[in-house]
Design goal:
Strand content: under 5%
Largest sheet: none
Helix content: 55-70%
Radius of gyration: 22 Å
Structural class: mainly alpha
CATH class of the largest domain: Mainly Alpha
Number of strands: 0
Number of helices: 10
Order of helices and strands: HHHHHHHHHH
Distance between the termini: 92 Å
């Protein structure tokens, strides 16, 4: 007869970890169904009982608010930007950055659009708690933009000596080009990340020195 080895229980989640887990499971459903998603659907996606959802969040509106905050959380894209190798050529680095930022903006727009389109317009007060993992917590959108700008400057910095403008100015133009994408998309013209980077670095004239 063999001795039975006692099974170790997985460590219990903290309240914040459980909230983050539920939000992660809920986000794809919120993007698809908006405010029409049910807590039962979210519980099944998270592999938990529906009662656990309500122990973590006071009501569905609070959970939807947490999903909205997480969708706007810049921490994920900042980590992607930080992972871009500075040994790669500048056009490749900026193309990867453009792809990461576009994906982030797309995810954010999908969740916001789905919630607003299904009637979820609950106002958040400045003191509301943010989702776990938010990096630039104080200052909200302004702090998020500052952190994103700094990340792009860091990506450009190794080529400072070869550039006509400071990396700080180039980063501002780069972000401005990306954030005007909804306008270009609605007009039926949506440049690829590679095209945006090429325009940023080389302009649009065939021979800039012979502009008419």
């Amino acid at each position: 007869m063999t001795d039975s080895v006692p099974r170790r229980r997985a460590p219990a989640m903290s309240p914040e970890q459980r909230r983050a887990m539920i939000v992660a499971a809920a986000l794809p459903l919120v993007a698809e169904y908006g405010a029409a998603v049910t807590t039962g659907q979210i519980a099944r996606a998270a592999g938990i009982g529906e009662g656990t959802v309500f122990r973590a969040f006071g009501d569905k509106d609070e959970l939807l608010d947490a999903c909205l905050v997480e969708a706007m959380n810049p921490g994920h894209v900042l980590r992607e930007l930080a992972s871009i190798s500075l040994d790669e050529p500048l056009p490749d680095r900026l193309t990867q950055a453009a792809e990461a930022l576009r994906a982030h903006l797309g995810r954010m727009g999908t969740v916001i659009g789905a919630l607003h389109g299904t009637g979820h317009r609950r106002e958040r007060s400045p003191g509301d708690r943010q989702a776990p993992g938010d990096r630039p917590a104080p200052g909200g959108r302004e702090a998020s933009m500052k952190a994103t700008h700094e990340a792009i400057v860091e990506i450009i910095e190794p080529d400072r000596a070869a550039l006509r403008l400071e990396p700080e100015r180039i980063a501002s133009v780069f972000l401005g080009m990306l954030f005007t994408r909804p306008l270009s998309a609605s007009a039926g013209v949506d440049p690829s990340p590679e095209e945006l980077v090429d325009i940023l670095l080389h302009g649009t004239l065939k021979e800039p020195e012979s502009a008419a």
